[in-house]
């Protein structure tokens, strides 16, 4: 049973005076011996079950695609046309410029970075790996695995703040204008990890049209949550490929997406979309690695979803499961911390995360307190390059995986830890 919600301190009360009471509250929390986990942006088993019938597809005896190609055999580097058709509509890109590949978009981002380092991208004076220094702009807070890709290749990370409309475009434009070592920018355009921001059309336009000192500047446009709405308002992402082409910089963005949080996180299909030159570049290098992707899995996806609308319908079922968990996070934070002025948090309209900002200097203490009470939180700093949040203020909450009752219970505990850490200060 969920814990009864402990009474919150009176609004604007002097938290320090409440320290003894908060310590007692925390001791009681510890005594409950909880074991809860808000670290992982994974779909829950209930969500995975939505796609369970897919495991019976394509089914024995069904092994040709709509054009009669035998999916069991080698070939088809671009991916199954049937599936590319469906996702081209969803991602708002031409089918010819969309590749359907393996099971993880992270692999495609990593490989794009690797190819750029080994051979350069179209327009590169040198392979990035032979440049003295390569830097990428990382909007913060951001996705730790983007940072890991940069770190693995020795790409230096420069941060800019996120805004409600996406990366601070003026800060980005100022950095890229006269620094040719800045070769790229990470963007999660829809329901960003972790703050849920959606890139506005104005920001997208600015990013694809700003002058860059590097002739081979790339935006890694990671549209991981393009279809992952938490409300009936199904936000449409700015059409970055069209905007870039209009601005005369067609090769600037490379879009990534996947069905990791649509079908199965471990057995989905990943997509890459970009200008014809970029797609040709990617395929040229991919062709050395692979004769073709897993077309059986791609056919399974195409048959299960049937159409773009089939995918949208499916995502509405995900929303029914996820929305109450996000509502619980918001409700508990509002009830417990609402008007104390010690924390702010996002109210995402989609995606998988809530970004919580606590009293500067206390995020790692909150995570530590939570851990000692049996609540696993993403390590403080994880949303910043090199794991260092200069303000030690940001915590990423991931409510998708635990059952609703556990999300509520864990959030009550998090609120207690935020209050105690603030009072200790
Ligand atoms: N990009 C973002 C922003 C994510 O949050 C995640 C997963 O959490 C991924 C990419 C991973 O995508 P994939 O499973 O397609 O590798």
UniProtKB/TrEMBL annotation:
One of its GO terms (molecular function) is L-aspartate:2-oxoglutarate aminotransferase activity. It comes from Xylanimonas cellulosilytica (strain DSM 15894 / JCM 12276 / CECT 5975 / KCTC 9989 / LMG 20990 / NBRC 107835 / XIL07). PANTHER family: AMINOTRANSFERASE, PUTATIVE-RELATED, ASPARTATE AMINOTRANSFERASE. It comes from the Bacteria. This is Transcriptional regulator, GntR family. InterPro entries: AspAT_Ic, PyrdxlP-dep_Trfase, PyrdxlP-dep_Trfase_major, PyrdxlP-dep_Trfase_small.
């Amino acid at each position: 049973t969920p814990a009864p919600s402990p009474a919150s301190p009176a609004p604007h009360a002097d938290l320090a005076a409440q320290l003894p009471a908060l310590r007692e509250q925390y001791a009681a929390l510890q005594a409950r011996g909880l074991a809860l986990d808000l670290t992982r942006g994974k779909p829950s088993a209930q969500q995975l079950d939505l796609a369970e019938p897919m495991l019976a597809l394509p089914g024995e005896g069904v092994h040709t695609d709509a054009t009669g190609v035998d999916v069991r055999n080698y070939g088809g580097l671009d991916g199954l046309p049937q599936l590319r058709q469906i996702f081209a509509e969803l991602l708002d890109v031409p089918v010819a410029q969309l590749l359907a590949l393996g099971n993880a978009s992270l692999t495609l981002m990593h490989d794009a970075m690797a190819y750029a380092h080994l051979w350069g991208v179209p327009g590169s004076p040198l392979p990035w790996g032979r440049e003295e220094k390569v830097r990428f702009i990382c909007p913060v807070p951001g996705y730790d695995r983007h940072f890991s890709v940069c770190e693995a290749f020795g790409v230096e990370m420069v941060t800019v703040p996120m805004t409600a409309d996406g990366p601070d475009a003026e800060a980005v434009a100022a950095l890229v204008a006269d620094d040719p070592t800045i070769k790229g920018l990470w963007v999660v355009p829809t329901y960003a990890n972790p703050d849920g921001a959606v890139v506005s059309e104005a920001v997208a336009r600015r990013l694809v049209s700003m002058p860059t000192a590097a002739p081979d500047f790339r935006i890694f446009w990671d549209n991981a949550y393009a279809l992952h709405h938490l409300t009936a308002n199904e936000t449409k992402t700015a059409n970055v490929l069209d905007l870039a082409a209009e601005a005369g910089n067609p090769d600037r963005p490379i879009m990534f997406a996947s069905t990791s949080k649509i079908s199965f996180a471990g057995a989905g299909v990943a997509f890459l979309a970009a200008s014809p030159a970029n797609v040709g570049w990617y395929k040229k290098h991919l062709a050395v690695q692979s004769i073709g992707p897993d077309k059986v899995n791609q056919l399974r996806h195409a048959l299960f979803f049937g159409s773009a609308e089939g995918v949208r319908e499916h995502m509405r079922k995900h929303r029914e499961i996820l929305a109450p968990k996000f509502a619980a996070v918001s409700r508990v934070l509002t009830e417990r911390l609402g008007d104390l002025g010690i924390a702010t948090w996002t109210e995402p309209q989609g995606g998988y995360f809530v970004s919580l900002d606590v009293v500067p200097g206390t995020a790692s203490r909150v995570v530590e307190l939570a851990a000692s009470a049996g609540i696993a939180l993403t390590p403080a700093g994880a949303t910043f390059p090199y794991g260092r949040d200069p303000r030690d203020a940001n915590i990423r909450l991931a409510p998708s995986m635990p059952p609703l009752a556990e999300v509520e219970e864990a959030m009550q505990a998090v609120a207690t830890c935020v209050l105690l850490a603030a009072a200790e200060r």
